[in-house]
Design a protein that fits this description.
The complex is a heterodimer of chains A (334) and B (397).
Chain A lengths: L2 H6 L4 H6 L6 H11 L1 H18 L1 H4 L37 H37 L1 H16 L2 H14 L8 H11 L3 H33 L3 H8 L4 H38 L10 H8 L8 H28 L6
Helix pairs in contact in A: 3-14, 4-6, 4-14, 6-7, 6-10, 6-12, 7-10, 8-10, 9-10, 10-12, 11-12, 12-13, 12-14, 13-14
Chain B lengths: L1 H28 L8 H4 L5 H10 L6 H10 L6 E3 L2 E3 L4 E4 L2 E7 L5 E8 L4 E3 L29 H36 L4 H15 L2 H18 L16 E3 L3 E3 L4 H35 L2 H8 L4 H13 L3 H6 L1 H7 L2 H6 L5 H10 L3 H29 L7
Antiparallel strand pairs in B: 1-2, 3-6, 4-5, 7-8
Helix pairs in contact in B: 1-15, 5-6, 5-8, 5-12, 6-8, 7-8, 8-10, 9-10, 12-15, 14-15
The chains are: A mainly alpha (334), B mainly alpha (397).
Chain lengths: 334, 397
């Protein structure tokens, strides 16, 4: 409230100035978050990884699929025939390892981020609708969720992913999405189909936990007086959900999304590692790590190079999620 | 309680039926499958051969009949009541479907079945004498298509199950023996150095993907140690094939106890580390919550020794939610660990599932998924029932 207004209202200006400064919720949260040293450090590390992924084409003169006959398994720091530096050496086919790692960052992070974004949206919509309206919709949705949760996650993911990736040519993918992903990830449109399908599979099997969480939050929120008040003022269900329930339920959803993101990075890497995800020549950290298995005895540094980014990302994201949880709601438990 | 159990078991049956339908539909509607190799050899096969191969995989029957035959072993012929055969002429399938390829809008050729050749229908009467499974609900999991052709899936499972049980039970045992004490101790000494170490270990454990951790262990204990001439661990499989020498330990014969133990160390520690990370964190949180309760303060106020307060009053209550985690190891004991078993080439159930999927041996994959789902459902019920036993405040209704 401005001081001019206080004057109009005939209030004591000096007293008003002495009142504690109004602090926005956002400021409180950021201040609490920045007190969490590990989370801030993780944020910086993750920021650097994302920056590298964005600037991938500027950071390497090699393309991730550029073959060089005869120069396979060059050691880190050696030079190619035309004198360019292989920062991390080359792989079994003579492709530059550093270029593949940073292009893989683009792909792995895009898959995890978009899967988590879709999952959060689905979770918010399904959870709030089923929690707020209750009744038959709630029963059907929650039974379906419970049913899907009885089937173990990884086997189901493997089976569906293997079926879909094996039949990727039979599944129609909109040209628009194909080309957009290909441009974004700097790969061929033919290969971007896999990326898109993997995102769909991950999101399609991951929305249950978030919907459940959202439903739980909405169930407790809907008994609050402010919802009753806005119902009394004649607000429609849609309006109450959008303007009151969703903003109030965002805190746990954000925390859950940050932790879920780490899970998606691991899932994508596991699928690609086992050979049921994105296939070579499209580089991802998972399939690069998988490829190093056969050459571990001769070239023991290769698994370290391709596995470290996965670990680094999941660790930093988990720390950030922890920091966010402490910042957004200290009592919150997930 | 009895009413509750009956209702739950009824619900469980429905859930299992739906998962059977879902997994069957998923694997049978997908293109590819056992006939995908036909495309490459089709020129050498006449239509009779193809019909025979289709009959072998039961692909000449319509999907609903295939499903009921897989589920319950029916129909296995016309219905016979008092010497009269009913439904003998009912059509249940087609030996040689007419297929037509046409160009669709996007410019690719699509093959579609548009009918059945005259006189090539399969009727109910033709099903008599066909080899059929007794149905999955009567415990017949069918025969494998690829991995052990024509042998029962049960045979594959029984040959792999002991290895997985061995691996998983050892891993879970280690996790309980290590995870619970460190979780409790970290909670009792909250904000101490030990607590700090445990919580950061838990963070690392949950963030570390098992495949990367497994590879790192192989790299270090299997390869580098061997190269440096130190005692090393054999990196794959459950037993060696020929005798080998380990520095400082000596000769190891394949199949000996030492050989088995050496092969177990790495996979067990990978699995245990991940589980310990999760469980110790869980126990710590639950213990912290209990330690704040009034009855703990009362116990302290009564003048009880701190040891008794923690062991008798706090720990027993903190372990109640832990029941869920322990009970849910049940499906894991059977299904094994897909990633860890693949990394260490462990001949167990997880590896079996992986192989079945990569070789499109769908009966095996389906059997494994269904049994795991069954065990998951049983574990859910078991944990609910155990809760009431452990905590009289909870009532089932």
């Amino acid at each position: 409230m401005s001081i001019a207004k206080f004057k109009d209202m005939g209030l004591d200006v000096a007293a008003a100035e002495a009142m504690p400064e109004e602090v926005s919720q956002f400021k409180v949260v950021t201040r609490r978050f920045f007190r969490h040293k590990l989370a801030v450090g993780s944020m910086i590390v993750l920021g650097v990884v994302i920056l590298i992924a964005i600037c991938a084409p500027l950071l390497s003169s090699f393309s991730p699929t550029e073959l060089e006959v005869g120069s396979d398994f060059l050691s880190p720091g050696s030079r190619s025939e035309d004198g360019r530096l292989h920062l991390l050496g080359t792989d079994a086919l003579g492709r530059d390892y550093w270029a593949r790692i940073i292009y893989a960052a683009r792909i792995s992070l895009t898959v995890a981020l978009s899967a988590q974004l879709i999952v959060s949206c689905i979770g918010i919509i399904i959870g709030s609708v089923s929690g707020y309206t209750g009744g038959v919709i709630d029963i059907i949705v929650m039974r379906a969720v419970e049913f899907l949760l009885t089937i173990p996650a990884l086997p189901l993911l493997l089976i569906i992913s293997s079926l879909i990736i094996q039949n990727q040519d039979a599944i129609p993918v909109p040209e628009l999405i194909k080309n957009f992903l290909a441009k974004l990830l700097l790969i061929q449109p033919r290969d971007s189909v896999q990326v898109f399908l993997l995102i769909v599979v991950l999101a399609g099997l991951g929305w249950m936990a978030d919907s459940r969480l959202m439903r739980g939050v909405v169930l407790s929120l809907k008994e609050q007086p402010f919802v009753e008040a806005s119902k009394a003022m004649g607000a429609s269900s849609a309006r109450i959900i959008i303007t009151h329930l969703v903003p109030n339920a965002l805190a746990p959803m954000i925390v859950s999304a940050s932790l879920g993101l780490a899970g998606f990075i691991i899932y994508e890497a596991s699928l690609s590692f086992l050979g049921f995800g994105i296939q070579d020549p499209t580089p991802t950290w998972g399939n690069m790590l998988s490829a190093t298995q056969s050459y571990m005895f001769q070239h023991p540094w290769l698994p370290l190079v391709s596995g470290t980014p996965i670990f680094l990302c999941t660790l930093t994201i988990n720390f950030i999620g922890d920091g966010l949880r402490d910042a957004l709601d200290p009592r919150l438990k997930l | 309680m009895v009413n509750y159990l009956i209702r739950r078991i009824f619900q469980m049956t429905i859930v299992l039926f739906f998962s059977a339908v879902a997994s069957y539909a998923l694997l049978n509607l997908a293109p590819g499958g056992p006939l995908s190799f036909l495309g490459s050899v089709q020129t050498r096969l006449n239509s009779e051969d193809i019909a025979r191969i289709r009959a072998y995989f039961e692909l000449d029957l319509y999907l609903p009949y295939r499903f009921t035959r897989w589920l319950a072993g029916i129909p296995n012929g016309p219905l016979t009541i008092g010497g009269n055969a009913y439904f003998a002429n009912n059509i249940v399938g087609c030996r040689q479907p007419i297929e037509e390829s046409f160009l669709n809008e996007s410019g690719t050729y699509v093959t579609r079945t548009i009918g059945c050749k005259e006189g090539q229908y399969v009727t109910m009467a033709d099903l008599v004498g066909r080899k059929t499974s007794k149905g999955i609900i009567r415990g017949d999991l069918g025969v494998s298509w690829q991995m052990l052709r024509d042998r029962p899936v049960t045979m594959l499972i029984t040959s792999r199950l002991p290895r997985t049980l061995q691996l998983m039970s050892l891993a879970y045992l280690c996790s309980i023996l290590i995870g619970v004490p460190i979780g409790v101790y970290a909670a009792v000494k909250q904000y101490s150095k030990f607590d700090y170490v445990v919580t950061s270990f838990a963070f690392f454990g949950t963030s570390m993907p098992t495949f990367f951790f497994g590879l790192l262990m192989i790299l270090f204990f299997g390869i580098l140690c061997k190269n440096w001439g130190l005692p090393y661990l054999p990196p794959g499989n459950a037993e060696a094939i020929k005798p080998y020498v380990i520095p400082l330990i000596g000769n190891v014969d394949p199949g000996s106890l030492l050989d088995k133990v050496l092969h177990l160390i790495m996979p067990v520690s990978v699995l245990a580390m991940v589980t310990i990370a999760g469980w110790s964190r869980f126990i710590r949180t639950s213990m912290l919550e209990v330690l704040r309760q009034d009855y703990v303060r009362t116990a302290r106020a009564k003048g009880l020794v701190e040891k008794v307060v923690i062991a008798k009053h706090a720990l027993r209550n903190a372990l109640i939610p832990f029941i869920t985690l322990v009970v849910f190891t049940l499906p894991g004991l059977f299904a094994g660990a897909i990633i860890t078993e693949t990394v260490f080439n462990w001949p167990g159930m997880g590896r079996l599932y992986f192989d079945a999927l990569s070789r499109t041996d769908y009966p095996v994959a389906m059997a494994l998924i269904l049994i795991t789902a069954l065990l998951t459902v049983i574990a859910t019920l078991l944990s609910d029932v155990l809760y009431t036993w452990a905590d009289p405040r909870i009532r089932l209704s």
